[in-house]
Amino acid sequence: MPIFSPTITDFWQTEFLNGDVLYSDEVFTIAINPDLDEDRRIMVLETIDGRVMVVLTPALAEKTALHKKQGLSEETFRQKLNEAGVSLHGADYLFYFSEADKNVVLQENLEGELRRLTGHDHAVFSNFQSSASEQDLDDAYVELDHWAVFGSFEQNRLVSAASMYPWENSRIADLGVLTLTSFRGKGHARKVVRSISKYAYGQGYEPQYRCQLDNLASVSLAKAAGLTLYGKWDVVSPDSMN
């Protein structure tokens, strides 16, 4: 597995092991934590080295009969969820820069019409949003009032933007990116992702890039921007039974 910052690995270890470990072996770990938020009362993380970690509330552990320490596996866990009528939302890929790629980002200076956006760019950003579809706006979740916003321009027109906000009170900054359809494939998104990531590093944050598994364009962008897949993260479905 590539070497990632301890900020990243420690965050996910804490998320999944900050409770009573019900079962653990070389590939599968499950823990119970009564302090999970309602919308994350079950979480599953599968890292690229094949390890799977699960954390859930005591109530859901009881509901799914996950109280016996022997014979547990990912397959058993998912079967018990299904039998109890508990569904998951659908996993996101988690991408980060490896420590080696982080150093490259920190040392580069990207060329072109690229800069940080502020509240003074309200008109420019509004015009940008009005040129995008509602679906693209929802998927990207790029907002001018986020913690940091960067944009790439073409002939003085904002054509691609990325924004970030601190993730879960950690030193991780979750980012979204949106490029207007007719300007895709020109490297704008790659530049804004790397530029905003360099800024985040300067503020003491690790950039995080998430996307749904079936969003092939977003997956391709993550790789083009130099990010490395860390794993897949899933939570309980909003429509799932309590």
Structure description:
The chain is an alpha+beta fold. The protein folds into two domains: 6-93, no CATH class; 98-226, Aminopeptidase (3-Layer(aba) Sandwich). The chain has helices at residues 6-17, 58-63, 74-83, 99-107, 122-130, 134-140, 188-202, 216-224; strands at residues 20-24, 28-32, 42-47, 52-56, 92-96, 114-116, 148-154, 157-166, 172-179, 206-212, 228-235. Strands 1-2-4-3-11-5-10-9-8-7-6 form an eleven-stranded mixed β-sheet, sandwiched between helices. A hairpin with a 3-residue loop joins strand 1 (20-24) and strand 2. The protein is elongated, with a radius of gyration of 20 Å. This is GNAT family N-acetyltransferase. Keywords: Transferase. Residues 112-242 form the N-acetyltransferase domain.
- Helical proportion, percent range: 25-40%
Q: How many individual β-strands? A: 11
Largest sheet: 11 strands, mixed
CA(first)-CA(last) distance: 36 Å
**N-to-C SSE series?**
HEEEEHHEHEHHEEEHEHE
- Inertia-based shape: elongated
Mean pLDDT: 93
Number of domains: 2
Label the structural class: alpha+beta
Strand order across the biggest sheet? 1-2-4-3-11-5-10-9-8-7-6
The CATH level-2 architecture of the largest domain is identified as 3-Layer(aba) Sandwich
CATH C-level category of the largest domain: Alpha Beta
Pfam families: Acetyltransf_1
Organism: Paenibacillus lutimineralis
Protein name: GNAT family N-acetyltransferase
GO molecular function: acyltransferase activity, transferring groups other than amino-acyl groups
